[in-house]
Amino acid sequence: NASSCTDQSQFTITYQDCSIPKGISPNGDGFNDSWDLSKHGVLDVIIYNRWGLEVYARKNGYTNQWAGQDKSGKPLASGTYFY
Known about the structure:
Layout (H helix, E strand, L loop, with lengths): L44 E4 L5 E5 L25
Antiparallel strand pairs: 1-2
């Protein structure tokens, strides 16, 4: 600035791996049967179908509850879903 004042700060940024699983295959084989976000501290998840309609929601503590089911627990058709 006009008074030639300067300031300096130091801080540390901690990086946490944030790779989110790209897909699930809820077929009961024990591999990628649910969308596991337990390591990410996610609280709320909303899943939409390709037309933008909400098909699943979990609030106040999500870990890996979504295994391709709709809000009533029925299996969704194979397809592309968004969050």
